[in-house]
Amino acid sequence: MDLRTSNTICDAESLPESRTRNDNSPALTIAQVMLAYLNMILPKDWRRDANTPWSRSPSPNFSLDAAGLVALADIRTIALRTALTGTSAFLDTFVLCPGIHSQQSAPELNGGEYPACGAMTSGYVFRVENPATVLYLQKVGLTGQLTTLSVKSIQHNASQWNNLISRFFTFQTASFTSSCAYLVAVAMTATALTLLAFSQNWWGLTVVLFLCTSRLCNVIVIRRRTNVSWQGAAEPGVKGDLLILLSQDRWIRMKGMVDDLKAVTSGQWLRDMTFLESSVAAFATLLVFLDAALASNVDQVGKMILLVLLIASAGVLAIANETTQMLQMHGRVIKVEGSRTKYQRRLEMVEQLIRESGRDDWAMRMGMIVRKDEKDSRKDSQEGVTM
Fold first, then answer.
1. By Cβ atoms counted within 10 A, which residue in 7, 21, 36, 118 is the most buried?
2. Distances (CA, A) of 47 to 4, 10, 32, 201, 265
3. How many domains does the chain have?
4. Is there a domain that residue 240 lies in?
5. Its domain of life (predicted)?
């Protein structure tokens, strides 16, 4: 019998009786398999046998004491996800990436722009007051091109099963790529929790659970704030056609039923927070900052798990946002219809839309054209000056 075999037998005999009786339990078997795998992929200095938790081994080469500060990075990925989906689902609780504390500032993503909008069917001119809609228009609009959008309601076709699923995942506007990326972010958090639990890394588990709690608080507040009742007077059965002038000469044409157009352009997207909601949001923000302080107590491997989780989740969530081509807002869906049309001059676009709508009062009120008599008077005045 060699020395390695004798040491193994001694170690087995030295185990407590209770430990020996439980060696065949499923949980212990899974933990042993995971520890064996981690011992294969980790550096030699971090490896431990089955009797010593591998996660307590410090790295001699570098330190990650400030790993928790990554959660405080001012990244608007979560806020952008909130704007594109129009709300926040309960499954968002397990999507952890930097910028958790900035989710309530999602209405600020439009940069303060509220573009002019003209109703080509009625001649009225107003502004787009919904910041999430403006953000989506900024995303799909291109300079010097007319982008046509359609607005449709999904409330009439929604069943109880669809309403239940939408509470956990907003699938109405999700593509295959965005859904896969989103579910990968959820799976990464579940994997991190499992690794930390099996390795008995209680500080690391506490840090991740604090982040999940902060996310849950923000999700609840966002869902409460989206319950806005005022959307203008109802006009059932009336079709609408809007022209929206964004900055940088981006032109948007939005078609749909008037009630649907009002739901996505007028009123509020997120109402102001009440005192209770503001307190919950403040508590969630404090949890994130407290989490950054407590992360220094996590061992080196736990910090690596936390760091990889935050950075990788931010990446896959950014992919999910980029591949989401539609906007959901107040039970309506906005999406691009057809191809964009380029124009050498804005006047060419206006003249074409006037011919299609059969009226030009909206164009004059938006300052895109002038009356014929005003044009003649300007021409006479210019000729007089020339003489």
1. 118
2. 17, 20, 13, 15, 58
3. 1
4. yes
5. Eukaryota
pTM for this predicted structure: 0.78
Query: If you search the block for the tokens 């009625």, which residue do you land on?
Result: 122
The pLDDT value given to residue 218: 95
Range of the domain at 314: 67-336
**Low-confidence stretches of the chain (pLDDT beneath 70):** 1-65, 156-159, 372-387
Q: Do 292 and 71 contact (CB within 8 A), yes or no?
A: yes
Maximum CA extent, the chain? 117
Question: How would you class 276 by CB atoms within 10 Å of its CB: exposed for 0-12, middle for 13-18, buried for 19 or more?
Answer: exposed
Q: Which long-range contacts (CB under 8 A, 24 or more apart) does 366-375 make?
A: 366/116, 366/118, 366/125, 366/243, 366/245
DSSP letter, residue 344: S
pLDDT at 59: 47
Residue 117 resides in a domain:
yes
User: Residue 330: phi, psi to the nearest 5?
Assistant: 50, 45
9 in any annotated domain = no
Bridge-based pairing state of the strands 250-257 and 145-153? parallel
pLDDT in tens, 207-217: 999 999 999 99
